[in-house]
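Sanity check

After download, print the first record. It should look like this:
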Amino acid sequence: MSNKNNNQSILEKVVNSSDENQQQKDYSTYVKNVTPTKSLPANMFKAFLVGGLICVLGQLIMNILKDYGLNKDDSAAYTSLILIALSVIFTGLGIYSKLGAFSGAGSLVPITGFANSVASSAIEFKKEGQVFGIGCKIFTIAGPVILYGILSSWILGLIYYILRIWGIL
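Expected structure tokens:
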């Protein structure tokens, strides 16, 4: 409680100070006091742990599908679909956001993080209706990723095509 009172008194000094330099110093002190500190090694460990566990889950699913007779390509496709479905379900249940809060970037393993961003946008804007809410806003976050992914694929395909015509590849 005393830390809260101390921060309040610093903030009052910032507001009431007529000296601009002192105001800057007091404000810097206030920001430093209220900004949460995080341990970089602990955050890196959590991100590595959660990201690694998501990848291990994907590998486990793929191995199980192979054991049931699917070939490598089909098991990889079904693994992607299952990971996307799990990500969307966990997003809808509010579990994925807690996982993200715990692990930071660890939950952004490409396929699950992308599915989470699309599902989160849909959930956030569903109150605005099916067409103008979900339909228009679902790709707010994921749209640029799709756009630049398609654009860069097209450019690389064009370069590959030209190099094939010239006989370089």
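If your output differs, re-run the checksum step. Summary of this record's structure: Helices lie at 2-16, 20-34, 40-67, 72-92, 95-103, 110-124, 130-137, 143-165.
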